[in-house]
Amino acid sequence: MAKILVVEDDSEILNSVRKILESEHHTVETASDGKDGWHFMTVYDYDLIVLDWQLPDKQGLDIMRDYRSNGGGTPILMLTGRTSISDKEQGLDTGADDYLTKPFAGRELSARVRALLRRPAQAVENVLSVGGLVLDPVKYSVTKNGQHVDLQPREFQLLEFFMRNPNRVFEQDAVLNRVWKSDSEATTEALRSAIRRLRQKVDPEGQLLQTVYGVGFVFRSRD
Prior knowledge:
Blueprint lengths: L2 E5 L3 H13 L3 E5 L2 H10 L4 E5 L7 H10 L6 E5 L4 H10 L3 E4 L4 H12 L10 E3 L2 E4 L4 E4 L2 E2 L4 H12 L5 E2 H8 L8 H15 L6 E4 L3 E4 L4
């Protein structure tokens, strides 16, 4: 599942978007103004940013322009009450990957998010498989040698992250940044505990999810 930032000053819309995305097992962080949104966008890594055009301290359009000019490449879904063709054209030309006008249906939001996460830059595949281990993000299921494996949400997110990035060594902070929310919950001990539980369930032999001592972790693909 993806890690998504939502920047929206309307609390009702913000909570609605957050609940919709969390119901689809995404990790969601939120900001209610441009200052906090800019901080999250430039400090942490996300798979998708949902950005409101009209913010109290700085226009979402200006934030997006600055973000793109500084090399930010994360896909952006812009939310706005502006419905004219010229406004849509301006938003897309400034750097938005998609544009959703308010009010919108939850199903449309979900569909647009799925479409953006399927784009090649995200390297998203429907089913991930390494040896006898199979992860299906759509069905939210994991099997090992054909047998169902019961994973907690954090364990599932960790496994998906590693399976999407095989044979790459990640420092602990890099894994925390991508899988956990940016809050006090994100500690190295929480990460190590989750990885211990994950290993017990899917890799007790220690052949796939390995510790690189003094550095971090790596998922060794045998395919």
